[in-house]
Design a protein that fits this description.
Blueprint lengths: L14 E6 L5 H11 L5 E8 L6 H7 L4 E3 L8 H14 L4 E4 L9 H6 L4 E5 L11 H8 L3 E8 L9 E8 L6 H22 L3 E6 L2 E6 L1
Parallel strand pairs: 1-2, 1-4, 2-3, 4-5
Antiparallel strand pairs: 5-6, 6-7, 8-9
Helix pairs in contact: 1-6, 5-6
Bound molecules: 5-O-phosphono-beta-D-ribofuranosylamine.
5-O-phosphono-beta-D-ribofuranosylamine binds next to helix 1, strand 5 and helix 6.
């Protein structure tokens, strides 16, 4: 008698994510669109924002994604604010926190420790060049011909965690900082969805500053 062995996946690989955004939310939307198009194996469990006027909220509402607003003014300290974020991540079952234009540094030790190597950020330059909030203008003013996108793990430092992905963007033809920002943003959108998807198929091992991707 022949025995036929059928393999069923034992568990769902879809990565459960929370997105943190403070403003426009175009990276958030790009990830949501990639998920809807089947290009990114993730589920957005919640949008967390520190800005009750963030356009990202409308994007979440039209995609029926729950929104949690965590505003600085409602907390005595930044640590307490980050504790509230940690509680939200846990309550929504987020495995990965995706910072997409979240303009505050995460400082809370409990949050950073509980989600060590499971918080990622996107930065519109090739780190360690041009960290901070004005990266595209800084790159343009400096006159570099190539800039790009960096996606990195988040630690206590500003734009300083281990790099997991980089992509170059030729900005030699850009005539203004705004043109640089627009060109890099386009690359950000496809890169971020791709990197989020990678968490559904593997994980990153970090040794010192070096992060290596290992397929599961
Ligand atoms: C992006 O350029 C991202 O790299 C930076 O902040 C910007 C956010 O844009 N961290 P958006 O809100 O995703 O449109």
């Amino acid at each position: 008698m022949r025995i036929k062995i059928v393999c069923h996946p034992l568990y769902d690989m879809t990565v459960q994510i929370a997105v943190l955004a403070s403003g426009r939310g175009s990276n958030f939307k790009a990830i949501a669109d990639a998920i809807a198009a089947g290009r990114c194996d993730a589920r957005i469990k919640v949008l967390i924002t520190n800005n009750s006027a963030a356009p990202a909220i409308q994007i979440a509402q039209s995609a029926k994604i729950p929104v949690e607003i965590v505003e600085r003014k409602n907390f005595k300290t930044r640590d307490e604010m980050d504790d509230a974020i940690l509680a939200i991540l846990r309550r929504h079952g987020a495995e990965l926190a995706v910072l997409a234009g979240y303009m505050l540094l995460l400082k809370g030790k409990p949050l950073l420790e509980a989600y060590r190597n499971r918080i990622i950020n996107i930065h519109p330059a090739l780190l360690p060049s041009f960290p901070g909030a004005t990266a595209q203008k800084d790159a343009f003013d400096y006159g570099v011909k190539v800039s790009g996108v960096t996606i990195h793990l988040v630690d206590e430092t500003l734009d300083g965690g281990a790099i997991i992905y980089q992509e170059t963007v030729d900005i030699s033809d850009c005539r203004s900082a705004e043109e640089v920002a627009a060109k890099i943003l386009k690359a950000e959108h496809s890169a971020y969805a791709k990197v989020v998807d990678s968490f559904s198929k593997g994980h990153y091992i970090v040794e010192g500053r070096r992060a290596t991707y290992v397929k599961d």
